[in-house]
Every structure is written in C-alpha cells, then in structure tokens.
Amino acid sequence: MVTIDGLTLDLADVVAVADGEDVVLAPEALVRMDESRKSAEATALRRPVYGRSTGVGANRTVSLTAAEGRDTHGLKLLRSHAVDAGRALDRRTVRAMLVVRLSQLAAGGSGINPSIAEQLVELINSDVVPDIREFGGIGTADLQALAGTALTLLGERQPLDGGNVPVRLTAWATADALPFISSSALTIGQAILAQQKLSSLLDNAASSAALSFIAMSGNSEALSPAVAAAADTQEVASAATMFHGMVHGSGEPARIQDPYCLRTLPQIFGSQAEELAGLHALLSRLVTVGNENPLVHGSPSDGTNDVAHHGLFQMTNLARRVDTLQLAIGAACATHLRRIDLLCDPKYTGLHPFLAEDGSGQSGVMMLEYVAAAAVGRIRANAQPASLQTVVLSLGAEEDASFASVATAQLESTADALATVAAVELVCASRALRLQGRRPEEFASARLRAMMQAGFTLPSDVEDRDLRGDLEMAIELIKGSYWK
Questions:
Q1: Which residue, 285, 293, 319, 288, is CA-closest to 99?
Q2: Distances in Å between the alpha carbon of 261 and those of 265, 268, 365, 393, 476?
Q3: Of 129, 70, 63, 48, nearest to 96 (Cα)?
C-alpha cells in the first residue's frame, strides 16, 4: 500500500502502483484539499477565475452565469475535451498517470473537491483502467487523457478491457472540471516509467561493457584513481571508479592505449548518469507540485485566499531534460556498436572471427551486430529534440507547446531499444569469455561475478544456429535489477 500525502512520492512507488500496488490518501492530504477548495470558492466570489467562472482557451473571455448553463459547463468541458486517438496505452502507463494525478491533487493547489480524489483512489485500487489513447497531449497538460478518465468515473466511457467502475459519479461540478484535467500527469507518468527502467538498464549495460573490456584485455589505467581525480564532472569520476573496481586485476592489458570504446567508458556512462539524475530530480518535484491553472493559494480564514493564472503546465523543462538524456544515450551508441564489432575481431579477443566455433567460415554472432545497429537506428531517431517543436492552437490563445508528451513516449522506445543493444553486447562478451576459458570466480568484483554468472546461463553451444532465443534471454537479464 502506497500512501499519498501530496508532499513526497518516490518514483519507485509510482512504478509499484503502475505494477498493481494499491494506494491510500493520507488524512492530512484530504484536509489540505478541502482548504484549497474553500479558498477557491471564496476567491471566485470576488474575482473571475479561469475555468470556474469563465470559459477556457480562446473562450477565456466568456463569463459563465447560472442562466447560461454554468451548472452544466463542467460536464460539457469534460465531454468536449476527452477526444484522443491512436493506439490504446497499456495498463502500467495509465495507472502511473492516475497515481501521479492523485499525488498532485493531494498537494492542495487545485481547489478540487476532495471527494474526486477519493474516487480516484477507488478507481486505482479496483484496477479499472481508463481507455486512454496515444495522441492528444502536446506538452501543455494532458487534458484529453484526464477528461477521458473523468468520463470513465462518470460511467460514460468504457474502461480498457471492460470492467466496472466501483462507484460511478452521478454528476461533475463545473468547479471541479478544469482542476481535475489541468495537469501533465500522463506525460510525467510515462517519463517516470522510462526513467526508472533506464536506471536499471544503464547499470546493467555498464556491467556488460566491463565484460567486453575484460574479454578484450583492456588497459585499466584509463579508469584509475588518478584519472577519476582529473575528471570534468563528479559523475564521470564516479563512473571511472565504478569501472576500475569491476575490471582492475582481471589480467594484463594488451595495449598501451585502447580504442575509445574502452578508454572513454567513464565519459560515456558518466554523462548518461548525470542526465538520468537530472531527470530524476525534476520528476520527483513534478509528482508533488500542482501545476494546475489557475493555482489556488492562501486561506479564506485570514483573507489571503487567491488564485494565480500562470503557465507552469507547459512542460518545457521536462521536454528539455528528456531530450538531453536521449542525446546522451544516442551519443553513446557509437561505442556500443564498436565494442560489439571488436568482440568479433580476432585481433582483440584471440578467438575465431565473429566468435564462431572454428575458422571454417562460420558466421557465429555476425548477425547480432546488425540487430544492434537496427536498435541504434531507433535510438538515434528518437534523439532528435522534441523540445524544438511548437504549434499555435485555440485561435492563437495558445501559441507554443513543449511537446514533452512526444519526448517521453520516445524515451520509452529508447529504453526498449537500448535493452536490445546491451543484450547483444552481453551475448558476445559472455561467449568470448567462455571461449577464452575465463570463469566468474576469477574476479574480485562481486558485481562482475554476478554479471558473468548470469551471462554464462546463456546457451554455450557456439555452432551456427538461430540466436533469437539467446538474445531474448539476454534482454531479460539486461532488464533485471540484481547486478547492482
């Protein structure tokens, strides 16, 4: 059970809820939301409040009155904003969106009725998942996805894979419509799932690279404490220390100076770690801060209640952070491919070409390099900055967009492709070490011993055969979290 208090929420807990964990709202979160609701109501009595007493978008200058249907405007807003298209998103992604939105509401800046948050808890714990499609958000709040969620709570839209909403809402007040949908919870949830997956993947990819280093008798001087002390960033220094701990003492170096794909491992993995940490810090902030527009603040009890109309819902920083991480991963791909290439070269391993059974012209792991290159093509395509995109919408009232939603969807694709690239390297490196007669117990590093033992669970037959099964096993190993 994950407690949602609106103050702190670990990204790992978002993943846990995405994977099926239940949630509970902390009592203080309900109090905070009720105070926010009272503040919003008091403010609306003395000044116009966007979406509560006015229309939205280009209709922001239209005042709502009871005679003009103010009481039904909220339901109309939800229905009109719920349109989306494309493939249905998977259950994990949608559940991540739901728990992120719940946490944001619990922060107490939306002015929403706490009962809506309680209904969201029921929806999550019943494992009824709204049917949300991929096309709708542009990085300026996931209006369509959350409006569709509201229609699911109302019983007007069928959930994904059927199922019944535990308690259907019979009405939706205008005051609660925009506060519910004014959030980028889907984009943030997608980014969290990808960031957490990449955290494990990059750790395991580093271990796989260390196996390649040993199989090619790399020179650990490039990873020494002296090099770490001269590194340009702390992350690069930490990566040098990590790699040195894994490979030092594994054998005599074959060269005074290695190719870049071995010599620059600290820069390659350190830069990725730096960007991954930056994205983690930003997401940790976004899950517990309400970017709702308008933002409700102050208290009616002391007369400080008010709202702020703003643009924080524009996920500019998130788009930029994701783009930068994508660039770091994409830039590293050249060295991934080069290590795989050199593992196939007798000059670097002392083995037959392509790690084949013998020198009679067998192809060995030749085609795995092509598979890795295809996955790299996907990663590099995804690394084209989404944050450079923009669009003008709603009769010119909204003249820019971050397209963070595109960036985060690409990051998930990058993670899957990176798993394939790292798995190819694992298959090749573990085969090379086995053919060289190396054993896990030879190495001082517990992390590398575990990695080698896992690699040695791959099939040992080196004759030409279908390697799909080997690669699928390696992908599952690379996706694991037990080599840290």
A1: 288
A2: 7, 9, 19, 46, 24
A3: 129
Q: What are phi and psi of 38, to 5 degrees?
A: -65, -40
| CB 118, CB 163: distance < 8 Å | no
Q: What is the pTM of this model?
A: 0.95
Residue holding tokens 């960031």?
A: 195
Right CATH for 2-58+71-183 from 3.20.20.10, 1.20.1260.10, 3.40.50.410, 1.10.275.10? 1.10.275.10
For the chain, where do the domains classified as CATH 1.10.275.10 start and end? 2-58+71-183
Query: What does the block give as tokens for 190?
Result: 């997608």
Residue 316: phi and psi, rounded to 5, are: -65, -50
Q: Nearest 5°: phi and psi at 108?
A: 85, 35
Closest CA to 217 of 345, 72, 394, 26: 345
- Check if the beta carbon of residue 188 is closer than 8 Å to that of residue 102: no
pLDDT of residue 448: 86
pLDDT band per the 50, 70, 90 thresholds, residue 285 = very high
- Residue 221's pLDDT band (cuts 50, 70, 90): very high
182 burial (CB, 10 Å; 0-12 / 13-18 / 19+) is buried
- At residue 199's C-alpha, the angle toward residues 196 and 204, to 5°, is 135
The number of beta carbons lying within 10 Å of the beta carbon of residue 451 is 26
Which amino acid is it at 264?
Answer: T
Query: Tokens 């788009």, residue?
Result: 319
- Three-point CA angle 399, 402, 405, nearest 5°: 130
Residues 6+ apart with CB under 8 A from 141: 181, 182, 183, 184, 291, 293, 313
CATH number, span 190-478? 1.20.200.10
β-strand partners of 133: 88
User: And the tokens for 362?
Assistant: 């067998």
Residues of the chain with CATH 1.20.200.10: 190-478
